[in-house]
Design brief:
Blueprint (H helix, E strand, L loop, with lengths): L2 H27 L2 E2 L2 E14 L13 E14 L2 E13 L6 E9 L7 E2 L5 E11 L2 E14 L3 E6 L13 E10 L1
Antiparallel strand pairs: 1-6, 2-3, 2-10, 3-4, 4-5, 5-7, 7-8, 8-9, 9-10
Length: 180
């Protein structure tokens, strides 16, 4: 075999190998759309009363806000049909306590709820936020992440809520999740 044919065969072998490896790795990381997901859990979070640009925090003096409540997610045919969350929030000293309601989650019509091999999912959409049962903010950009079927993180766009949650996520746990 002459040198040019050897190089051509080598390049073809490497190319085919790379294609096969990328297909294998691509399939390994593929996620599947679930026909139905039903999940619920508890909100249990702490938000610090400081601007997001704060670089040093004195834990003895920073104001702390407790968030406690519940959440629920339902999908059908890979689409969100319901997401709600109701939680109490207020400073740890008990002053100015109030409630929040998250409702009417909307995701792009072409987005299917995907569950990864490690049983995690990420939902990007917009929802409405209420305070004490009354509408406070509409069309709040939101990212909801369920990790390993164990925890939930709800990130509300700071600008859409007049910095109410101080650009900090709301955390919780998954008590129950069922996928079909």
């Amino acid at each position: 075999m002459n040198f040019k044919k050897y190089i051509s065969c080598f390049i073809m072998y490497v190319s085919i190998s790379m294609i096969l490896v990328s297909l294998f790795l691509g399939n390994y990381n593929l996620v599947e759309a679930k026909n139905a997901v039903s999940a619920e859990g508890a909100i249990s979070s702490l938000v610090f009363g400081m601007p997001p640009t704060t670089s040093t925090v004195n834990m003895n003096t920073v104001q702390k806000f407790v968030l406690s409540g519940d959440w629920r997610l339902i999908t059908e045919n890979g689409k969100v049909t319901n997401f709600t969350s109701n939680f109490y929030t207020g400073p740890v000293n008990g002053a100015n306590n109030h409630t929040h309601q998250l409702s009417n989650l909307r995701v792009p019509s072409d987005s299917l709820i995907q569950v990864s091999p490690d049983r995690s999912t990420r939902i990007i959409g917009i929802l409405n936020v209420g305070t004490n049962g009354k509408n406070a903010w509409n069309d709040v950009h939101t990212v909801i992440t369920i990790s390993n079927e164990r925890t939930i993180t709800i990130k509300l766009a700071d600008n859409d809520t007049q910095n109410h949650f101080m650009n900090q996520p709301i955390y919780g746990i998954v008590k129950h999740i069922k996928t079909d």
